[in-house]
Amino acid sequence: MDDRKIRNILLISVDQWRAECLSSAGHMVQTPNLDLLASDGVAFRKHYTQCVPCGPSRTSLLTSMYAMNHRHVSNGTPLDNTFTNIALEARKKGYEPTLYGYTDTPIDPRGLDANDPNLKTYCGVMPGFCVGSLVSEEMAVDWFGELEEKGYQLPENQFDITLGQKDYPGAKERGQSYAAPRYDKDSSDTAFIASKLVNYIKVHREPWFLHGVFLRPHPPLFAPEPYNRMYDPNDIDMPHRSESVDIEKGQHPYLNYALDKMATNGAYMGHDYNVRDLPDHEVKQMRAAYYGLISEVDDQIGNVIQTLKDTGQYDQTLIIFTSDHAEQLGDHWLWGKLGYFDESCHIPLIIRDPRTEADDSRGRVVDSHFSEAIDIMPTVLDLMETKIPMQCDGHSLRPFLEGTNPDKWRSEVHWEFDFRDLEYFSAEQRFDLTSDQCVMTIIRDDNFKYVHFTSLPPLLFDLRSDPEEEMNLADDKAYLETILLYTQKMLSWRQNYAARRMSHMKITTTGLVEREFSRI
Fold first, then answer.
1. Domain named Sulfatase N-terminal: which ranges (predicted)?
2. What does pTM read for this prediction?
């Protein structure tokens, strides 16, 4: 009797992880545990998030909606509570989805008193999840408590515990990001989340749904020992960028604005200096620290997967590994996640389906088809054999997991970035725009990337000859037809994926007619 079936769901999400940062993808960073998972599952190499930053991207992941439909467009923008999500749908199958980490879901303020504490943080929890422990950019009470129990003295700003130690030996010569935090590798936030997942898996025997969210490799870029010295900065390439910031700025008014903001001290979380204009050795060391944090997460994910094997649950658990968005890492003189570059939005996806139906696909690399973060929810629900809500903009990846290709599939990916600044109005004032005009939409296939701004000039990149997106061709008359073609494609996409609400229903003299159909 074959007991390889989906009984449990383990959805692992990391924060700010670039798609190429896997050793199985040919990168220098060492990720042996994720490589092993990929060899027993399917790796999607052309996978993209639908928006940035953290909160909006996680909303697209967990609701299967484009930002133009869910409208959670920035950290702090509330999410309409009428939408369903992967946790609420899983509850219909008897699961109690449990979260360790965070979702950064600002609560719908309608009906709440102005003094409600939920209106003082953007780190709310997606409805439907039972909270095991929160560890986010704003709250980590359980982790901080554990650190204190171990004898670590927390600074006044508790999150400063994640910063590198002052006067750390070798940091002055090698670079500031070489300094390790005071805690050891077994006491980090990464180890904390992994230990919670391990303990949950050991104890629970009924079918379970776990959403484990690791904050790393999100900045501050200070890795605990020994990960802080795992990668020699001398072995690391410099970012790809123009010869100077001024030349880079010439690509587009928005990039000019973003690069000005990047030069502000403290613009990159946990680094209270201008990261844009650092000397080369500092830049390489920051990248080395980023890779060290990635290897740390990989080691801890290995512990979680080993626990599944030790408890006999590996072949009954659907495992999904992905990220909310990616990281510029100095490319184009930028750090963090923003805008239209692939470095911000190209993310990893590995899925390990335990069923025998997936045996033919083990070790498969899907590099001929684009996938999107919004595909995760319909994939999980499809494998649960439950109905996929009409709300979902994504499509099930199940055919890829079973070794085939869908008859119909998208030929490009799309994402959006809303750069409005409701708190300080900086973008609005810089460009003399309304907040609703501070938005860009991106369509990208294997040949071109077209970026449409509501009220700023467009961008066009020929990815075949310019994969690093250095030359904007939007003003080149030779590409006028290409601009028109991709503008039409984008308009068709927006028309096809506009929020349905009840547009698929019709009240007739004989009653309600409801049609179910795919968008592709």
1. 7-384
2. 0.97
pLDDT of residue 1: 41
User: 47-66: per-residue pLDDT in tens?
Assistant: 999 999 999 999 999 999 99
Alpha helices in 92-150 (DSSP H): 141-149
Question: What domain count does the chain have?
Answer: 1
Q: What tens digit of pLDDT does each residue of 470-516 get?
A: 999 999 999 999 999 999 999 999 999 999 889 999 999 999 999 88
| 3-state SS string for 301-325 | HHHHHHHHHHCCCHHHEEEEEEECC
Catalytic residue among 54, 123, 345, 392: 54
Q: How far apart are CA 237 and CA 130, in angstroms?
A: 43
Q: Which helix (H) or strand (E) holds 56?
A: helix 54-63
54 catalytic, yes or no?
A: yes
* CATH code of the domain in which 267 resides: 3.40.720.10
Contacts of 309 (CB under 8 A, 6+ apart): none
- For residue 77, pLDDT beyond 60: yes
Instruction: Report the b/e string of 324-362 with b at 16+ CB within 10 A.
Output: bbbbbbbbbbbbbbbbbbbbbbbbbbbbbbbbeebeebe
* Angle subtended by helix axes 32-39 and 280-310, to nearest 10: 50
DSSP string, 447-496: SEEEEEESSS--EEEETTT-TT-----TT-GGGHHHHHHHHHHHHHHHHH
Identify whether 172 is part of a domain: yes
Domain encompassing residue 36: 8-514
Q: Would the pLDDT of 198 be above 90?
A: yes
User: How confident is the model over 185-195, as pLDDT tens digits?
Assistant: 999 999 999 99
Asked if the structure places residue 456 within a domain, the reply is: yes
Question: CA 99, 104, 106: angle at the middle one, nearest 5?
Answer: 120
1 found inside a domain: no
> Given this model, what pLDDT does residue 139 score?
84
Residue 519 belongs to a domain: no
Six-digit token string for 231: 């990668």
What average pLDDT is seen over the chain?
97
